[in-house]
Amino acid sequence: MKNKSTHVVPKSSGGWNIKQNGAQRSSGHFDRKQDAIDRAREISRNQNTELVIHNKDGKISQKDSHGNDPFPPIG
Q1: Residue of 1, 2, 55, 59 with fewest CB within 10 Å of its CB?
Q2: More confident residue, 36 or 73
Q3: CA-to-CA dists, residue 52 to 28, 44, 49, angstroms
C-alpha cells in the first residue's frame, strides 16, 4: 500500500499548488507559498497524510507527518 501524502509544489506559470500523491489535478492553487502551506496542513490533518513542502526548484524543504508516523520520536 502506498503512503498517502499531500504536497505543496511550485507551479511553472507562477504560484503554488497542493497535490495529493498520485492525483492528476491540483487540490488548490495559491499565489503565496504560506497560504498553500496553511491549506495543505489542514488537508493533511483531515486525511491523516504526510505533508511534503517543496522549494521553487522542486526539492523537498520540509516534511510533517499528520498520520501514522512509521518513525515516531522516542520519548
Answers
A1: 1
A2: 36
A3: 15, 10, 9
